[in-house]
Amino acid sequence: MPAAHTPRNRGPAAAAANRAAILAAARRLFAEHGYRVPLNAIAREAGVGQAVLYRHFPRRLDLAYTVFADNFAELEELAAANPGPEAFVVLWRRIVDDLVESTAFIEMVLDARDDLPAEIDAPRLELLMAGPLARAQAAGLVDAAWTTADVLLLLHMTHGVVIAQPERSREAVRRAISLVDPRLA
């Protein structure tokens, strides 16, 4: 009779894959259930033990910050992949989609905004949006008077719409944005 196969601990060899699985699970579960989702649910979804999760992310906040930093990196890649004037609208729509999908998670970051690491703070978002905004303005795709601070204000307003109308947030956000500028809806 052959010996039963039992999974073996791959130790450090699995560290990168475990970290990636934890981040993917955290992104999904934070979006679905909010920032307070049990960490054991994230570990289970990632296919790792809680000790592995805590080895990579000692605090819930460390995990949340890393997911947000990864979101910024994806936005920067999206901006780099769209060098034309349409980049602003592409970025805008992606950010709004993320905001609608992950409202509870975003609230956690807003609550911790005084202690945010540079990887996820507002100046980084403003810097990311500056070039695409200027190109969109030059092409007449958005209001020429807008600043990056105005764009952040629009995002805060959008977040308010999501909070005020959670049961129909996507529809309400689309309508609110169309009232400001239909080209962004």
Describe this structure in words.
It is a single chain. This protein starts with 14 loop residues before the first helix and ends in a 5-residue tail after the last helix. The longest helix has 22 residues. By secondary structure, the protein is mainly α. The mean pLDDT is 85. The chain has two domains: 47 residues, Homeodomain-like (Arc Repressor Mutant, subunit A), CATH 1.10.10; 126 residues.
Key words describing this protein structure:
single chain, 185 residues, mainly alpha, Arc Repressor Mutant, subunit A, 9 helices
Number of helices: 9
Domain count: 2
The CA-CA distance between the termini, in Å, is: 64 Å
Radius of gyration: 19 Å
| Main beta-sheet annotation | none
Shape: globular
Bin the strand percentage. under 5%
Give the rounded overall mean pLDDT.
85
Any low-confidence stretches, pLDDT <50, length ≥5? none
**Which structural class fits the helix and strand makeup?**
mainly alpha
Q: How do the SSEs run, as a string of H and E?
A: HHHHHHHHH
How many DSSP E strands?
Answer: 0
- Percent in helix: 55-70%
Summarize the structure.
This protein is mostly helical and 185 residues long.
Topology at a glance:
Elements: H1 15-33, H2 39-46, H3 50-56, H4 60-81, H5 87-101, H6 103-111, H7 122-138, H8 148-164, H9 169-180
Helix pairs in contact: 1-2, 1-4, 4-5, 4-7, 5-7, 5-8, 7-8, 8-9
